[in-house]
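Lab notebook, bench 4. The sequencing result for the construct came back, and we need a structural model before the next group meeting so we can plan mutations. Quick request posted to the team channel:

Model the 3D structure of this chain.
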Amino acid sequence: MSAGTQQVPVPWTPAPPQLVMAYSVCKGITRRAAKNFYYAFLVLPRRKREALCAVYAFMRLCDDIADDPTLTPSDRRQKLDIWLDALHRAQQGQPTDDAILLALTDAQRRHSIPAGLLDELAHGTAMDVEQEESSAQTTSVPGLTIQYRTFEELRLYCYRVASVVGLVCIHVFGYRDPAAETLAEHCGLAFQLTNIIRDVKEDAGLGRIYLPEEDLAKFDLSASELLNTPDPARFNPLLALEADRAREFYAAGDQLIPYISEDSQPALWVLITIYRRLLEKIAEKQYDVFSAKVSLSTWEKLRILGKGFLKRIK
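Done. Here's the predicted structure in token form:
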């Protein structure tokens, strides 16, 4: 039995003021860092909103550790292991003064989030570190690595860092039909593919290329072209291919909405609408994600949020 699922006779329970503080810390992290998710969270009932803020704060710290340029890949892996061990101890009922772990373990109990899903989230971020430690897929360009050879390999990464998030979310949202699980996984894939398309330039700057090697080859593109000033026209067909894949997965999001609890449906609609609109905005710019980072304005997000609130009160 894994540490994350072991039972203890008398688990420690934080005092209510500690939980209030802990959730407040997670809310602050989410408000600062979750450029798209936070708007959807606002439409949720308070308890569910707090729970997803705790999940996001946990994910954010995992990402920050995996991306820390001041640490070697080995040190990052060790730090991720230490962080995951701390989560396991908190799940077992051992005392902790870490605000994120306090809120996350409380949310996990309230919403019956499987411990294995939280482990998967951490393992997903560790995949980036593993790729840096491995030289199997290193390109001829120093410091630049193609992370995955095929779309199926990329899909596994997307499952761990995004589909698992979808599964955690529907546990918080509430659902009864197991069919919701596959739909949530596909919805997460759509979001992550959108992120990959948007962040091609930024990720290349970090030495990472998530576009599959086989897709680059299909359009006679090389990893080295992503450095300096790439020609947007050359990458247009490739990014359009990835966008088409994302659109197929967005259809699962539309199907998912009726499967979750009614009080959470507006939030999921807001989230899907924001991400789908982001993808279409990229398409309108002919997939030029190199001249400037494409994003929705605050006003565009607020308009979507307003429609979400209207759905909630109907």
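Residues 266 and 298 are 19 Å apart (CA to CA).
Will bring this to the meeting.
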